[in-house]
Design a protein that fits this description.
Distance between the termini: 56 Å
Radius of gyration: 30 Å
CATH architecture of the largest domain: 2-Layer Sandwich
Number of strands: 14
Strand order of the largest sheet: 5-4-3-6-2-1-7-8
Order of helices and strands: HHHEEHHEEEEHEEHHHHHEEEEEHEHHH
Largest sheet: 8 strands, mixed
Length: about 550
């Protein structure tokens, strides 16, 4: 029997801290590299996200090129090039080969962005070197640089640090921008969840971008820019008291430059003024003049409870950058031939102190398939969500909406069927994803509610269109029936009266048309009735009443 002291000593000697790179090397599925098809798509996604963010940060309309080249049966080279501001040479290694390095992760507050943790593109480099042994090749140039910098880089997994294999300079055709080349083990597909489909969806919610794609066979696709207007720049926001947790508050108390607890509350938090700060400290039983660094954990606990119970305005929305209803509708119509399209951007809302806004667009008819389920496209912060649809709050909101009310077939709470595209976009300072791979939005009651309300508003407009079209089709059907009856009647009357059959038919058709018109509403009367219906429904919407009567608590 082993001596327990010896076992304890041996276990102690074997204990080691591991780097974040080591962790994700063993758990690559958490980042979206769990199969060969998805690995390629995730790699393209991370590179394109970086390009879009960089261009927008520098007020540059994005021109992005994506190329996939087949190396052998199971290896592909991914090349993504942009016209962004470029990266200064001494930061290239850390940007592409150090996980949790970047400018997007904010411990306190933050602003809307595609990335959140600073993992994405470095995870691509890590996956590539693990599956092919090849380094990433980066070409980048800033506007002021005379030449571009070329860097070949790998990740030191044990230390989570970049290994620069080579660094040179070259003449480059681009005035500024970045080109990423990685060779990885992958599988290319030409169906749903393909690179082409991802780029098409990306173009819909990023109408200010121009994206060119070349597939392994050399086929080219161009997703044209729909607008020359850049998205509204999101501003960095202070944390809101309602979203604060005790551990975070404790750290913030230690690093603040505020000299008093009162000034700490008014300078470090969103929507906290002097009066609100005084009320919070009174409830917490704390001296407003005490220095924040002297607050004990027990006092911090009292402070956070007082913050959570105080009446404070909703967070600022300066950190949000929604697409906009008009642009979203225009972008959808640029990618699909439709009979009808509509869109809505909800007013901003809040969950756990985090501001968010929901946008919805519907496209109906046209070239869309009549049979089968509708097409649901989910997005968070302008990024397509292509996996884990069933686990997503946006899917839940869609399936629990009563689409029959709007003329769309649906069985229970299943996905509706018919020629319909549904686009749902959530923009948030901190999007609540279900995992690090950012495939699905967590089922936050406030987000589900706002999504349903947006779907219902668009659904009402769709219902009016379908109802009007159905009435028009019914009218045409009635006319055709009258015509068929008139032909038969004219033939028989001609036999009885010996009158010309064509003359009789002309008279009968005139009578039929007059009868039809006499029983039909005048156009202005029909429009008035539709307006009354729409006004009644919109009135209910303005009260934020869920037509399905769901409880989100």
């Amino acid at each position: 029997m082993a001596n327990s002291d010896d076992v304890s000593k041996r276990l102690g000697e074997e204990m080691r801290a591991i780097s974040v790179a080591q962790f994700f090397e063993k758990n690559k599925h958490l980042l979206g590299f769990d199969n060969l098809t998805r690995a390629l798509l995730t790699s393209v996604k991370e590179a394109v996200d970086n390009s879009l963010d960089a261009c927008e940060e520098a007020d540059i309309l994005p021109d992005i090129s994506v190329q996939i080249q087949q190396v052998d049966a199971s290896r592909y080279k991914m090349i993504v090039e942009d016209n962004g501001p470029g990266i200064i040479p001494n930061k290239v290694g850390e940007v592409f080969a150090k996980l949790l390095f970047g400018s997007k992760f904010q411990t306190f507050g933050g602003k809307q962005g595609r990335g959140q943790q600073g993992i994405g593109i470095s995870a691509v480099v890590l996956y590539a070197q693990n599956t092919t042994g090849k380094p990433a090749r980066i070409i980048t140039k800033t506007k002021s640089a005379k030449q571009a910098t070329v860097v070949e880089v790998k990740i030191d997994v044990m230390k989570n640090e970049p290994i620069i294999l080579s660094q040179t300079t070259i003449d480059w055709k681009n005035e500024h921008g970045t080109r990423v080349e990685v060779e990885l083990e992958a599988k290319y597909v030409e169906k749903k969840a393909s690179v082409s489909e991802y780029l098409k969806e990306t173009a819909i919610v990023n109408p200010h971008a121009s994206i060119k794609f070349v597939d392994p066979k050399g086929n080219k696709e161009i997703f044209k820019r729909v607008t020359d207007d850049l998205p509204k720049k999101s501003e960095k926001m202070k944390p809101h008291p309602y979203g604060m947790e005790l551990g975070t508050l404790e750290r913030l108390l230690k690093v603040t430059s505020a000299r008093t607890l009162s000034s700490f509350l008014t300078t470090e938090f969103d929507k906290v003024g002097g009066t609100t700060a005084t009320e919070i400290l009174k409830v917490a039983g704390l001296d407003p003049k005490i220095g924040p660094k002297f607050i004990t954990i027990e006092q911090a606990d009292k402070l956070i409870k007082a913050m959570h119970s105080a009446k404070i305005q909703s967070p600022s929305t300066n950190g949000l950058s929604p697409i906009g209803a008009d642009i979203l509708k225009k972008s959808l119509e640029s990618e699909y031939k439709l009979d009808f399209a509509c869109s809505v951007t909800r007013t901003p809302s809040v969950y756990k102190g985090n501001a968010f806004v929901v946008e919805v667009a519907l496209g109906y008819g046209g070239e869309l398939d009549i049979e089968g389920p509708i097409s649901l496209f989910r997005f968070a912060n302008r990024v397509p969500l292509l996996y884990q649809q069933g686990a997503c709050a946006l899917t839940k909101a869609t399936t629990t909406t009563s689409w029959k009310n709007y003329g769309i077939s649906q069985s229970g709470n299943n996905m509706p069927t018919g020629p319909l595209i549904v686009i749902v976009h959530v923009a948030s300072v901190w999007a609540p994803f279900t995992s690090e791979s950012k495939d699905a939005v967590a089922s936050i009651p406030e987000i589900v509610k706002e999504t349903k309300l947006a779907l219902q508003e668009c659904g009402r407009l769709l219902g009016v269109f379908i109802g009007k079209r159905n009435r028009s089709q019914m009218a045409a059907k009635k006319r055709e029936m009258f015509k068929n009856y008139s032909i038969e009647l004219a033939r028989e009357l001609s036999k009885i009266t010996n009158q010309d059959e064509k003359t009789l038919l002309t008279k009968l058709l005139q009578i039929a048309e007059e009868m039809y018109k006499s029983g039909q509403l005048k156009p202005e009367e029909e429009e008035a009735q539709l307006a009354k219906i729409e006004k009644r429904k919109v009135g209910a919407f303005k009260k934020d009443k869920d037509e399905d009567g769901d409880d989100y608590e």
